[in-house]
C-alpha cells in the first residue's frame, strides 16, 4: 500500500522539505541565542575592569626599587585560580584612583602562586612570610621586613584605609 504525499510546486513531497525547513529554522534560533548569550557575557566581562596597578614581578625587583625610591613595597600574593584575587583585580585594582594611590606611596609587587613549584621564588616567599593562601597583601620595607598585612578580599575603601594607616 502506497502512502500518498502532497507535492509542492516543484513536484517534491511537501513533508520532507518542511522537515528540513524546520531543522534550519531551529538551528538559526539556537545559533542566535548562543550569540546573544556570548554578547551578554562579553559585556559583563567588559564592565568588570582590568587590573591597572603596575605590579612588579617578584620580591627581588621590588626590593631593588624600594631601596632606590625609599618607598615600602605592597606585595600581592595572588593566583590565576583564586576567585577573590580575580575579583580584586577586576573591581578594586581596576580603579584609577586605587592604582594611583598605590603607585604614589608603594612599590607594587606581585607574587604569583598559580604554579606552586617547590623551591620556586614564589613558594620561597610564601614559606618565608607564612602566607596561608591568596589573596594576601603584605606591606614590607626594602629589606623584606613585614610592616603590616591583610588576608583575603578587601573592599576598595578597606584597602585604601589600611594603606593610608600603614604609610
Protein described:
Residues 39-47 have low confidence and may be disordered. The protein is elongated, with a radius of gyration of 28 Å. It has a five-stranded mixed sheet, sandwiched between helices. The chain is 51% helix and 15% strand. It has six helices and five strands. The chain has two domains: 11-47; 56-166, Glutaredoxin, CATH 3.40.30.10. It is an alpha/beta fold and 167 residues long. This is Thioredoxin family protein. Pfam families: Thioredoxin_7. It comes from Natronomicrosphaera hydrolytica. The chain crosses the membrane at residues 20-40.
Bin the strand percentage. 5-15%
The CATH class of the largest domain turns out to be: Alpha Beta
Secondary-structure-based class equals alpha/beta
Multimer state: single chain
Distance between the termini: 94 Å
Q: Provide a count of the helices.
A: 6
Can you tell me the residue ranges where pLDDT is under 50 for at least 5 consecutive residues? 39-47
CATH topology of the largest domain: Glutaredoxin
Number of strands: 5
Provide the number of structural domains: 2
What order do the SSEs take from the amino end to the carboxyl end, as H and E?
HEHEHHEHEEH
Give the name of the CATH architecture of the largest domain.
3-Layer(aba) Sandwich
CATH level 4 superfamily of the largest domain: Glutaredoxin
Q: Strands of the largest sheet, in order across it? A: 1-3-2-4-5
Percent helix range: 40-55%
What's the mean pLDDT score?
A: 85
Domain Thioredoxin: 33-167
Protein name: Thioredoxin family protein
InterPro entries: Thioredoxin-like_sf (IPR036249), Thioredoxin_CS (IPR017937), Thioredoxin_domain (IPR013766)
Organism: Natronomicrosphaera hydrolytica
